[in-house]
Amino acid sequence: MQNRNLTETLAREQAMIPVVDDETLALALARKVDAKDHYTNGHSLRVARYAGLIAARLGMSEDQQKKIYNMGLLHDVGKIGISGTIINKPSRLTEQEFEEIRTHTTIGYEILNTIMEEPDLAVGARWHHERYDGRGYPDGLSGTDIPEEARIICMADCYDAMTSRRSYTTIHPQAQVRAEILRCRGTQFDPEIANAMVAIMDDDHAYHLSELGQIHMAEETMEEIAGDDPITAAEYDDVLAALSDSAALMDYEQTARMLRALPLYRIAPDDREDFSAIRHAFHELDWEGLIFAIDAAKVHHE
Prior knowledge:
mainly alpha
């Protein structure tokens, strides 16, 4: 009964959202999930990005990469049905609480299998906590019986857990994360997918893929746009990317700094209406609306 009510609630909320592309809708739902967890803001967006990078490294088509990206955005959507008290508990979970957390996989599967036009999106939600050795949940699948998309999201999810701030841990050094992935290759992770993640890390010399790395990239963008002259089209692209990261993390100070540095006269006339919408959403502290406004600005600027 509880799961059916959740599905119906999400369906009603989906119907109230303006008609947008699938990725933007998925992002809106992902933001609802991340907003419940005080410690993992931006998690779903980062997992989606990492999953897309892994898919690209494995040689998948652009359509497959986009599908896996959207699966990553929605992999934790079932947490909408989990008590916020449990999700944000700073101490160790009891066995009963852990069992409730585990149900987010099946809740997410039921939600996505019912209300999304692409039922494949439910794959990531249900099986991203399966392990290659069969010791995961909810179904105890092993090896290639686990859908490939879910194996990729599992890797992306665990990478973000090790490279972002949580209530119970801090960001691990890149070398430690790399060693842990190699240690769990063939047990927790698909060996080929683990190798792909390690290859991506080896290309990321500055550790930009960590949560702190993304914050530092936003700061570098701030340095690039310093001054009073109008910014170039390329700089505007960088600004939108940095704003997207800051909004995903709900980083008020970083977002405010970027917007203060860019009065409208520095924005190209064709982009000013979109940038005004971004400013308005931020001043209203409407983080979901801010994400929509940034995405719309990206599309119009292409």
